[in-house]
Design goal:
The structure is a homodimer of 111-residue chains. The first copy, chain A, is of the alpha+beta class. The first copy, chain A, has 5 helices and 3 strands, in the order H-H-E-H-H-E-E-H. Chain A has 2 domains: 69 residues, Orthogonal Bundle (Arc Repressor Mutant, subunit A); 40 residues. The longest helix of chain A is centred in the C-terminal third of the chain and has 38 residues. At the A-B interface, helix 1, helix 2 and helix 5 of A face helix 1, helix 2 and helix 5 of B. Chain A binds a DNA duplex (30 and 30 nucleotides) through helix 3 and helix 4.
Chain lengths: 111, 111
DNA sequence: GGCTTATATGAGCAGTCGGTTATGTATCGG
DNA sequence: CCGATACATAACCGACTGCTCATATAAGCC
């Protein structure tokens, strides 16, 4: 699954957010995210699986707990994809700035 | 539609790519993207609509043509979201570097 | 005006996604 | 061992996505 596809779901984005603050057991993620979205334990568990399969999360078994930890790799991929367009939008920003500048001059000229 | 949701589709990502290289008429986008994905004109047209609705593209009417131009705003949103995690993966990179460093010392020590 | 070109939209349909309930599989604790 | 706990998976289902073909809309050209 493509990273963007994984991040298309709000529950998964939220889980990424949660995991970014540190490792969490599956049950902890359920306790946080479940109520927020009004979804059940299996629903969260499946989203964790998608994150795993998508490379966003690693699991470690600790007794009866599964500890999830964020893997930054796919996020870096997204960043790399985005980097292609960074030049583009900075240029657009410059154009906008130039436009505003031009408008200011215009208004000043008119008084 | 959330930017990530818009970018979840490969056809739409490709169209963003195409538009990043400059304005294109709808028909030009169809001519490029259609064959690449083996999809019809209406299919491309509908993806252009999703990009429009998602704020990724602006249209200008020129006679019977519709000229599409990329709007960087949603891309910047994605970048902003990602920025929260940039620190996280840089830290992860440092950890990895430290790990490699440690491994190197280990190997050196063992000869 | 009537034909052609450019593009969008409607209707219909198969496939996928994400949810639910029910159940399976380990591990912990007495 | 056995019940409780933590988590994953199975089976099912409704909603949504993205495609197709057919058609609508509007401008360009003679």
């Amino acid at each position: 699954m493509h990273p963007f596809e994984v991040l298309a779901d709000p529950v998964r984005r939220r889980i990424v957010e949660v995991l970014a603050s540190g490792e969490r057991a599956s049950g902890e993620v359920v306790a946080i995210v479940g109520p927020e979205f009004g979804i059940s334990q299996p629903a969260v568990s499946r989203q964790l699986r998608v994150l795993r399969d998508g490379g966003f999360a690693r699991v470690r078994v600790a007794g009866q707990r599964r500890i999830y930890r964020l893997d930054p790799e796919p996020l870096r991929e997204v960043d790399a994809w985005l980097a292609h367009y960074r030049g583009f939008w900075e240029r657009a920003m410059d154009d906008l700035a130039a436009e505003i500048e031009r408008g200011d001059r215009e208004r000043r000229r008119r008084g």
